[in-house]
Amino acid sequence: MHPLYQHMATSVFERMSLAAAQHGAVNLGQGFPDFGWPVEILDAAARALKDGSNQYAPSRGLPALREAIAGHYAQHQGLKLGVDQVCVTSGATEALAAAILATVEPGDEVILFTPAYDAYAPLIRRAGGIVREVPLQPPGWRIERAALQAALSPRTKAIVLNNPHNPTGRLFDREELSLVAEAAVSRGLTVISDEVWEHVLLDGQDFTPISAFAGMAERTLKCGSAGKIFSLTGWKIGWLISSPELATLAARAHQFLTFASAPNLQAAVAYGLAEGDGWLRPMRESFSRARDRMTAGLEASGYAVLPSASTYFLCVDLAASGIAIDAEAFADQAVERAGVAVVPLSPFAEHDPPRHMIRLCFAKRDETIDVGVEAMAKARTLFA
């Protein structure tokens, strides 16, 4: 048995979702929306299932989808891409796996900004790499030059960048991104950029891809997600974008992970990317309203809520809310005693994790948010 998996705990998302089902609790832990998907894209998938091919798609993706992805980024981010720079994957996590396997060799060091999505570290270790954490400090969660420079070494091979950032809801600014680009260019590093939240922007924010910085286009592996763009997380359609050389390397890794994804879903995503600009603004407005509704309810109950500029997550500082128990204990007891599932931030880092922070998903209907806020109010009376 491989020791990496033999000693690995169940994902915190799976654990809290199972606990929510067991106790009949409202699930504000796992990050999936319960509203907001465009019906037209579902109809396109149904038509493609009935009328199109149901056999293996090309491993790098349907040509129509690869062309739609290239066109989408040309329009929205000014990126000039050929279809040979695009590889369709079974979700963005598989894109990350392919990018890491194509980049990291045994003994290579890879930098993570923590708290970080919990798939990064196991994927790096499975490739034989060594994880080097750069802790981001609340409440600002900023990338600081000194902390980044301290983590770099002659063995550093890559940086994993997640922007916008899960679990904190941060959208890193140009100054922070320039620090990452400067380190990558000066040291010849690859940047694996998880940009799945690039369209889930709140309050009129703008997104800048790391590949747009000088010297970065040829050294960035960008991971994207149709599930996040269209609120269809269960479809698991993602992609990798890079230089032709790096994209080909990642595609070789991808072909022995999942080989190809469902062709009808790929066809529907191609339709959505080509026709779907009209859905982006309403989606952002809906998520902004949901965030504001949850934030107002939590603050009225006495919780200290941190700002969220992107994603559909917000963080609560338990210590600042007058709650002395740590986030793990709060999550375990809140789901059982108060009827609400949340996610502690401590599993998102291994060294000096934020033990007083929890993450909640606000991509929910009003009635779900209201029930969740009521349950959180009950939890505060139990623990404050």
From TrEMBL:
<keyword id="KW-0663">Pyridoxal phosphate</keyword>
<dbReference type="Pfam" id="PF00155">
    <property type="entry name" value="Aminotran_1_2"/>
</dbReference>
<comment type="subunit">
    <text>Homodimer.</text>
</comment>
<dbReference type="InterPro" id="IPR015422">
    <property type="entry name" value="PyrdxlP-dep_Trfase_small"/>
</dbReference>
<dbReference type="InterPro" id="IPR015421">
    <property type="entry name" value="PyrdxlP-dep_Trfase_major"/>
</dbReference>
<comment type="similarity">
    <text>Belongs to the class-I pyridoxal-phosphate-dependent aminotransferase family.</text>
</comment>
<dbReference type="GO" id="GO:0005737">
    <property type="term" value="C:cytoplasm"/>
</dbReference>
<feature type="domain" description="Aminotransferase class I/classII large">
    <location>
        <begin position="26"/>
        <end position="375"/>
    </location>
</feature>
<protein>
    <recommendedName>
        <fullName>aspartate transaminase</fullName>
        <ecNumber>2.6.1.1</ecNumber>
    </recommendedName>
</protein>
<dbReference type="GO" id="GO:0030170">
    <property type="term" value="F:pyridoxal phosphate binding"/>
</dbReference>
<dbReference type="InterPro" id="IPR004839">
    <property type="entry name" value="Aminotransferase_I/II_large"/>
</dbReference>
<dbReference type="GO" id="GO:0016212">
    <property type="term" value="F:kynurenine-oxoglutarate transaminase activity"/>
</dbReference>
<keyword id="KW-0808">Transferase</keyword>
<dbReference type="GO" id="GO:0004069">
    <property type="term" value="F:L-aspartate:2-oxoglutarate aminotransferase activity"/>
</dbReference>
<dbReference type="InterPro" id="IPR051326">
    <property type="entry name" value="Kynurenine-oxoglutarate_AT"/>
</dbReference>
<keyword id="KW-0032">Aminotransferase</keyword>
<dbReference type="InterPro" id="IPR015424">
    <property type="entry name" value="PyrdxlP-dep_Trfase"/>
</dbReference>
